[in-house]
Write a structure and sequence with these properties.
By secondary structure, this protein is an alpha/beta fold. 47% of the residues lie in helices and 20% in strands. It contains 11 helices and 13 strands. A 6-stranded mixed β-sheet has the order 7-8-6-11-12-13, sandwiched between helices. The chain has a 5-stranded parallel β-sheet with strand order 2-1-3-4-5, sandwiched between helices. Helix 2 runs parallel beside helix 3 and helix 7 crosses helix 8.
């Protein structure tokens, strides 16, 4: 629900080199409930902007040293401040000055000596417009988020995950960096739903997603591929290092007991890893390799991490037995570091 416009929520920066002008403007705006901060020259105004972000600036056009036009141009050149509404306060009605003000980025002007009702009306109009615009931007951001995020697990949805994967593949093909995809499937998930109910199943999916996320870097992408299956795009990661990540995730989840609906539910996952191998690869091929490795993990008894290995085009099962790990490392040549 949108919030109503409230002057007390608005911070205004008033800039004028004449202290009496600051006092007059401040008194008029304070009676309406606005919160003010002041500056007596252009440099001080820019320093104020480093300390706080006002909702609107009332800026004197003619000031010694740095003029209001220069201050306005400096503000509008900053990407973080370009949207700040600026109203000029000016004693000049020369067309040249007014044109310069608008070309510099002003949204309005008030001529001195100004009348309080006019000043208040212009300030309120532009603040309400900014308030509405901010709410629309926030609403648009929420809509865009909903279009990209799985609402249950708060991970990327399948559509967005494919978009990100395509972007990373292009980067990999351009710069020759490694890329891997991990497919992760919750073991016996149907039995969880049948035994404990769908709400418990939802809690399991949330916990799997959150535990997996904690084992990833900020540059990796986690998404819900469908049902109880997740996919991870591991950037700058070769197959061997991806298996290490997968094994870490598998081990963390194996040690968990998800408490849901009054039950402590043990969770395990099967994981498959596929990697970029050739310039002609597309995302579907890499995901297919990860899927084949996932099926191998399931057929090998579940609660396992497997990889579609480049050098032998076979599947390897990584276990916790030292001899198996040693054999795996002997067979798979590490080509890059994660």
């Amino acid at each position: 629900m949108s919030s109503a416009f409230n002057p007390a929520d608005c911070l205004l920066l008033v800039v004028d080199d004449v202290p009496n002008n600051l006092k007059v403007v401040g008194n008029i705006l304070a009676r309406e409930g606005y919160v003010m901060t002041y500056a007596i020259n252009g440099q001080q105004a820019l320093e104020r902007l480093e300390a706080s972000t006002p909702d609107l600036i009332l800026l004197d056009l003619m000031m010694p040293g740095m003029s209001g036009i220069e201050v306005c141009r400096t503000i509008k050149a900053n990407p973080n401040q370009v949207e700040l509404p600026i109203i000029f306060l000016t004693a000049s009605q020369e067309q040249k000055h007014l044109v310069e003000a608008f070309e510099a980025g002003a949204i309005d002007y008030v001529v001195k000596p100004f009348q309080a009702p006019e000043l208040l009306a212009r300030v309120k109009t532009h603040l309400k417009l900014k308030h509405t615009t901010d709410q629309l931007r926030q609403a648009l951001s929420e809509v865009e988020k909903l279009a990209c995020i799985d609402p249950l697990t708060n991970t990327f949805n399948r559509r967005r995950l494919f978009q990100l994967a395509e972007q990373e593949l292009l980067r990999t093909q351009r710069y020759g960096s490694p890329l891997s995809v991990m497919m992760l499937d919750v073991d016996h998930f149907k039995a969880v739903n049948d035994t404990y109910g769908h709400l418990a199943g939802d809690w399991v999916l949330k916990e799997v997603a959150e535990t997996t996320r904690r084992q990833l870097r900020s540059t990796d992408f986690l998404g819900r591929y469908g049902g109880e299956e997740f996919a991870v795009i591991l950037t700058e990661t070769d197959g061997f290092k991806a298996v290490e990540v997968g094994e870490r995730i598998r081990s963390k989840l194996e040690s968990l007991a998800v408490v849901a609906e009054g039950h402590a539910i043990k969770v395990t996952v099967s994981i498959g890893v596929g990697s970029y191998m050739a310039q002609t690869d597309d995302i579907d091929q890499i995901i297919k390799r990860a899927d084949l490795a996932l099926y191998h993990s399931k057929n090998s008894g579940r609660n396992a991490c497997s990889i579609f290995a480049e050098n032998a085009c076979e599947l390897y099962r990584r276990s916790n037995r030292d001899e198996d790990v040693a054999n795996f490392e002997d067979e798979f040549e590490v080509t890059s570091q994660r």
